Amino acid sequence: CSGLGVLSLGKELHSYVIRSGLKINVYVGGSLIDMYLKSGKREYAERVFSKLEGKSLTIWNEMVAAYVSEDKIVEALGLVESMKEDGFTPDVITYNTVLAGYARNGRKDEAFKLLSEMSQVGPKPNVISMNALISGFHRFGLNDDALELFRDLQSSRNVSIKPNAVSITSVLSVCTDLKLLDSGKEIHGYVLRNDFESNVFVSSSLIGMYTKCGSIVEARLVFDCTDQKDIAIWNAMISGCVQNGMFDEGLSVFRRMLLNELKPMPVTFSSIMPACAHLTTLRLGKQLHGYIIRGGFEDNVFVASSLVDMYAKCGNICVARSIFDDMHVPDTVTWTAMIMGYALHGPADEALSLFERMALENGKPNYVAFIAVLTACSHAGLVDEARAYFDRMRKDYGITPHLEHYAVVADVLGRAGKLSEAYEFISKMHIKPTASVWCTLLGACRIHKNLELAEEVAEKIFELDPKHMGSHVLMSNIYSAAGNWKEAAKTRVAMKRKGLEKQPASSWIEVKNKVHAFVAHDKSHPCFDQICQAWEVLEEQMKREGYVANTEDVLHDIDEEHKRELLCGHSERLAITFGIISTPPGTTIRVTKNLRVCVDCHTATKFISKIVGREIVVRDTNRFHHFRDGKCSCGDYW
């Protein structure tokens, strides 16, 4: 019953034993205790244990372990004393269990005292004893002690406590969590010297450590040198690539795994799906969704959460919501992914409504959920609501605001034109604001053309980070918009002197299973001539509909005619026009841009959507824009 997880059946059998008047011997009693403990019903196990005559050492140890697993160390120690009174001598399993309890509760001195007693009078400590200490110390946060103990074990002459594969994976977890690359390499050396590299658990841990530390080359070497790769090895490599922003490489490893005829597991899909989300490859995301359905993983909460996130970030919020609604019990990650989806797409009221549902149905929202709902407020200009959610974090849920929360609230205030209030809000943060937090206000200064405040904010940013690229670009643009070409030029010279190079604007679109990238004013695309011809026709139609070019975002000291010509070469226009001439009528056009959509391109795309009768979805650095029938989902607030 414990193996099948059928507690009700086990309780029926227990009831039958009692009704039948059968004596519960050590074997039946041990089985009942084991079943109740594995079902998480310690109180039932205690009742059986208290009435059981002729207890065995194994049963005593099971009960001690049950208390330790719940961090009830005092009760566990009391049980050990009762064991002695009952005539049993604690064995190494008993002591190792208590050692684990001490370590995982940070009671280091008591743990080492018990270890000393074991060495002198009790059962001799073994490698399991040491693993219990390393794992427990790490769990409590005594990471230096865990590392020091592992180093001591390496140099020990006592063969019985020499590190094994479990010791290595435990201490590698310390290096992974703290990103201790040098210590990780030291342990890798021990692995090679002692022939542990063929152990799949060790190899998987090494890959995880290297990728977490950003050393993807070393991770790949471990991966390539592992002859017998199990699914855990492949998952570690896929996850590592994606976490380090190597999305194409992650997809390549995933394809190799399929070619090696390994069946993906739920964690595989959870690891690879963010690559599709980042690259906005909806086609590939749909293919992975097909794998998930065929594998029967669609009910897995982690897989479903990754699907919700992928569809939302690939521009299909309706499918994301459909998957969310079909889930039996969404977890916090799923709720947050759906809320953030609405924050990026709109409407904001859906995001806020979901957040309130989450608070009622799922319990406590975490700090990421608050980032999501605050982002929704920012994209809709909901200043009062943002203030209220920010206050609720601490008052209702005891969550201390992170830098991200402050940045989003500052963004809300800045977008709404409340620049002085945003400045005061940042100045009074309980933690020191970073350059990125101040940069949100600098962006608002550009929108609302406040040069004086922009200069003051920029000074603060450059004190914190003299090479902050985004702020240099913003200041150059702010000066240019104000007609102060001299200061704009000085800013660009400063960028060059510091080795800073502005990221070129680019957009990409997927057509017929191929991604086409466009850079502003780049004429290298094979269809460039057709794109220009189609754009000229579109522009004439737009003008007849009332379109007038807005040149305020063309920040060059040139005449208006030249500015209008520059607008025509913006990357998103090239991508959209290519999409129109390359896909059947009525097809939704999906474009991704690496920068914020400019005001004129936003206006132009509204006209285009009405003229061609298509939905055009543009994802920029701020949000998604759904253009339909001459209108945008952002309500011109972005």
UniProtKB/TrEMBL annotation:
One of its GO terms (biological process) is RNA modification. Keywords: Repeat. Residues 546-638 form the DYW domain. PPR repeats lie at residues 56-90, 91-125, 126-160, 230-264, 331-365. One of its GO terms (molecular function) is RNA binding. InterPro entries: DYW_dom, E_motif, PPR_At4g14850-like_plant, PPR_rpt, TPR-like_helical_dom_sf. It comes from the Eukaryota. This is DYW domain-containing protein. It comes from Asparagus officinalis.
